[in-house]
Specification:
- This protein is 14% helix and 32% strand.
- It has helices at residues 45-50, 65-73, 122-126, 130-134, and strands at 2-9, 20-21, 24-27, 31-32, 60-64, 87-90, 102-105, 109-116, 135-137, 143-145, 149-155, 157-159, 164-168.
- The longest helix is centred in the middle third of the chain and has 9 residues, at 65-73.
- GO terms for molecular function: catalytic activity; molybdenum ion binding; pyridoxal phosphate binding.
- It comes from Streptomyces agglomeratus.
Length: 180
């Protein structure tokens, strides 16, 4: 299974959106060089308030570009980086990957999938009603989170739009993604 990087984004300041870049550099064990969420321990404000010593399982945020097409059909215009992701992909069912999946991105970088992004109310501040589009329930009443996945950097490297993403699944049994 493989896909493509369609955009890369980072921001050195706390902001809901992240500007697109020509490239980003992933740093092993830290995240995106110069990004406010890079670090060994948690950097998201809500998690820092709970326990600043917890490991950062949210070093790199990935979203599938297919989500933007789905949102457009519902009347929402969202571009890469606007939901705070670092890497936008196409051609990969990110939400269907199991925990521990390795994504080989570009020539060198490898990230390990840690879980699902749990969207917050800031999404509605960005566009009213958007939160209901990215968090819902399936036919069985289970919560479905569509706002991307989180990962940690195993091997650093530069990532650019157009880079290939190769998926390596972990050994079975697979553990489904949960929020991190």
């Amino acid at each position: 299974m493989s896909g493509t990087v369609t955009a890369v984004s980072s921001n050195g300041e706390y902001s809901f959106t992240k500007p697109n870049r020509d490239s980003i550099t992933l740093l092993a064990g830290l995240g995106v060089e110069g990004d406010v969420h890079a670090g060994i321990t948690v950097k998201h404000r809500s998690r820092v308030a709970q326990d600043p010593t917890r490991p950062n399982l949210r070093q790199v945020h990935l979203i599938h570009a297919e989500l933007f097409a789905e949102l457009l059909r519902e009347g929402f215009t969202v571009e890469p980086g606007q939901l705070g992701e670092n890497i936008t992909t196409s051609g990969i069912d990110l939400l269907g990957l199991p925990e521990g999946t390795l994504l080989h991105v570009g020539e060198q970088a490898v990230v390990e999938v840690t879980g699902l992004r749990n969207p917050c109310l800031q999404i509605d501040a960005f566009q009213d009603g958007l939160l209901k589009q990215v968090v819902g329930r399936d036919e069985a009443g289970n919560i479905v989170r569509k706002a991307g996945i989180m990962s940690i950097v195993r091997t650093g490297g530069e990532v650019r739009p157009g880079d290939q993403v190769r998926v390596v699944l972990p050994a079975e049994p697979h553990r489904p993604l949960e929020q991190v």
